[in-house]
Amino acid sequence: MIEGILIGLETALSLKNLSMVMMGCFFGTIIGMLPGLGPMTAIALMIPITYGFEPATGLILMAGVYYGAVFGGSTSSILINAPGVPGTVATAFDGYPMAQQGKAGKALAIAAYSSFAGGTIATIFLLFAAPSLSKVSLAFRSPDYFALMVLGLTAVSAFSAKGQFLKAMMMVVLGLMLASVGQDSLSDITRFTFGNINLLDGISFVLVVMATFAMSEALTIILKGKDPSRATQQISFSKLGSIRLDKEERNKMLKSIPRSSVIGFLVGVLPGAGATIASFLAYGMERNFVNEEEKQKFGKGSVHGLAAPETANNAACSGAFVPLLTLGIPGSGTTAVMLGALLGFGIQPGPRLYMTHPEIFWSVIMSMYIGMVILLILNLPLIPYIARILAVPKNFLIPLILFFSVTGIYLMSFNNFDIFLMIGIAVVATFLRLYKFPMPPLILAFVLGGLMEENLRRSLLISNGSFEFLWDRTLTAIILILTVTIVSWQAYKSFKKRTNIIN
Questions:
Q1: pTM exceeds cut of 0.70
Q2: Which long-range contacts (CB under 8 A, 24 or more apart) does 4-9 make?
Q3: Is 79 within 8 Å of 386 (Cβ atoms)?
Q4: pLDDT at position 134 over 60
Q5: Residue 396 pLDDT greater than 80, yes or no
Q6: What is the pLDDT of residues 420-463, one digit of tens each?
Q7: Domain locations in the chain?
């Protein structure tokens, strides 16, 4: 291992590769800030550029773009409630309320520190545990994935305010319905397309996110006829851009980071899970770890609620490289694009990669830590200036949000239908927001719905239609027992509160 680390450092610290890390981090951060664009699109555009490079150099550049985009994606989530990348959706739940309270600088600082810590801890995990964790990822089967998705849906309790659990469940059902649109992956049967060929491939996740968050936020402000930025304009630059955290805020952040790093990395290791699911799971789990007073702050500007998803999504980015480098299985959509690039270089990722091409395996890992340091240095000094975006009047900012939303969706598919669909969903989402329906449960269900259905059907096929698969495998049973325990505990606490109120 020591020899591999030295090879990785020698390769990563060469002038060419170091410049690639810096370039990837910079462009990744900029792309991550732009709502509607993501690392997948950026990396796809990078592939033709990297064909003249050595495989290690090309992969280092693409890796820099990847975690740079996730790192920078929190900025638009916090400032304008328009997630730059899907992995930062959960960041907006508490980051945006903090920004509205005049704490944009603090929110961005918490996001930056948490991202750095999560990425660093996960890189250390990757360094020492990659070969072993590849065996763990292989142990997961369809029943285990199904159980994991059910566990993920229990996080809906984290997104429901007091007395709004029924509304949250209704949004879960709506999210599952949207996830079922299109061709069934196993039988190729079309569902809920209404004869429209544009819906055969289903509804894009980015489209739903942009419609329910960015566009609906803009439409809500227009309908209310208020300009929230007026209050912001009265805030001094120093207060707006303050990045100093007090002792209490630092303690809260330091409590969230270790457990969210572990959750994020482990979810990232699982092929197909990714940073989005990791951030949702970390957010939901974090709410279960804190006391009752802190739980009430979730969704209103909680430090725990901001630090947890930011830590987890960056940790998941590092974790996603485990199945890619050790198994040749992409851990996310972005690493799937990187897998195609590696195959284009004539490199076959797999269990023997760190033996046949140690310079690629170890240099990518070492460059990730270097990239995290660069991102922290790059982002922290700019926070006070980035935060000034809040002072821009909404009559200027709203058109920009709408422009980036429409442009981002169009550039993904070059299909006018997607624009009209996004507007339609945004209109519905706006009315739901006006009647206090929470949006996060819809997004959570939409993310998990497709994966849950796919793995359920596979499990049923393997077990010949029997539901015995739920308890036949020890791992599946453990995950489901954990799910039942969480639900039962939440139900018990709710019952206890009602009993105390009656008495």
A1: no
A2: 4/354, 4/358, 4/361, 4/362, 5/127, 5/362, 5/366, 7/358, 7/359, 7/362, 7/363, 8/358, 8/359, 8/361, 8/362, 8/363, 8/364, 8/365, 8/366, 8/367, 9/362, 9/366
A3: yes
A4: no
A5: no
A6: 999 999 999 999 988 888 777 787 788 778 778 888 888 888 88
A7: 2-396+404-502
